[in-house]
Prior knowledge:
Two copies of one chain form a homodimer. Chain A has helices spanning 3-17, 62-74, 95-103, 159-176, 190-201, 207-216, 242-251, and strands at residues 18-32, 35-43, 49-50, 53-57, 81-87, 120-127, 141-148, 180-184, 188-189, 220-226, 236-240.
Amino acid sequence: MTKSEAINALIHEGRNWFLPSLSVDCVIFGFHDNQLKVLLLKHRYLNIWSLPGGFIYKDEPVDAAAHRVLKERTGLNEIFLHQFHVFGDPDRYDKEFHRNDLKRDGIELNDEHWILQRFVTIGYYSLVEFSKVTPAPDTLSEKCMWWEIHKTPALMIDHRKIIDKALDTLRIQLSYQPVGYKLLPEKFTMPELQRLYETILDKKLDRRNFQRKILSFQILRRLTETKKGVAHKAPYLFSFNLKKYHKALRQGLGGGW
Amino acid sequence: MTKSEAINALIHEGRNWFLPSLSVDCVIFGFHDNQLKVLLLKHRYLNIWSLPGGFIYKDEPVDAAAHRVLKERTGLNEIFLHQFHVFGDPDRYDKEFHRNDLKRDGIELNDEHWILQRFVTIGYYSLVEFSKVTPAPDTLSEKCMWWEIHKTPALMIDHRKIIDKALDTLRIQLSYQPVGYKLLPEKFTMPELQRLYETILDKKLDRRNFQRKILSFQILRRLTETKKGVAHKAPYLFSFNLKKYHKALRQGLGGGW
DNA sequence: ATTCATTGCGTCATTATGACGCAATGTAAT
DNA sequence: ATTACATTGCGTCATAATGACGCAATGAAT
Lengths: 257, 257
């Protein structure tokens, strides 16, 4: 099936395949070059970008739809994919935008067409290992690539708001659960982990206190190897103790009451 | 409009009024007799209960729909109404249940009827002041009343799961934000506040340490009055310092990083 | 007047936190 | 080869937060 055939099928058959009114959008976070990034899709014609998203098949669990989108755009089957908020204002959907957009493909739709109706979208965020991702555009886009979280290009409708809300949620999550597994490679250094935390929190942390605290959670295993090829003292490598990491995910990191 | 007219209108006109596939359900928490309670609706014929819920008008923000449900069931315009999770498994809706249910009213529907389709529901939870609530059943129920959170009767489909998830979320919220305003009356005692925390956390707390910690947040104002009519030493009354309370809501209670 | 559950206010040992010092390491510059 | 320098590992110290518990005061019920 060519791309334009795929678009045609979506437009004409979509209403039979998908739940009406509903979509999912995924904020896919990756960490690279000491920067937190998000995966975005570029519109076919316009210089506008959007979050990876999709519709929900009529008999598909909502979570499964999000996993499917994630899989299609990254090639990954991530465990960490959290639903975090629903965006449901009536004005978050721009009917004319999509109508004009499809007109470029010679597709003329009237007001009642399913794809021009109001959509409520369910936001998910995922933490993935940057190096393992193979970004793949969907039928309706021409490119798929990573962007630094604070330097994203112009985004469709409320997608910037969705990213910000995902970041807020991730920040809160950080205060009661460990984060890092799947965002960092298998082996990483303490400064790398710290940089991740600093990026998410948008705040500098004391190197020594950070190390003391993160080690006290007992979720790390220090390896005997050190990082090679750095222009200074070689730091130790660490990896997550997955057993304790997941235990901490379930039980929280203490704190609070 | 009588009740059965209202049902008829909903059944026959609903598809023109509401977004398809979507509903909202509210877990409305109240605190009374040192117990955390939820507001539930009783089915018209069966001895089965459900959460207050409703559909979303085609041009209505999703949050507004939740507020509307809250207002209709309690008479209150609460500020605290948080969206916490979407429940979207295909099997969470029981088509035959509703078909048989409506048959009792002489309404026969075929498979394609909008109200028998799969619904994805958006869960909200609200904290309200027990004494100010006037429980009111909706068109599809016969009674509306409070139930102790851990002693609820048989609930429709996944509604028990929704309550549990709301409690989980409330517990997490408790660890980084203050809770209590709107769940307690204007003036309350320290033991009452503690009982609220203990109920939510399902855990005993030390009386003296609890007081020290909660006071350290500076969100309380101690009044000169004491509680009257208790069979022992009269405890002081407190009220929330709303300015600082809301500041703490925004900024969090410290903790974490 | 006495009893007794409960309250207000405190102590004390332990642990967590924030701020910072210093020697060791290993590449890069001289 | 020697030195410079950014960065790391490991530590200290003062202060704040936490958990466990003591004790006298209160006030309705006996």
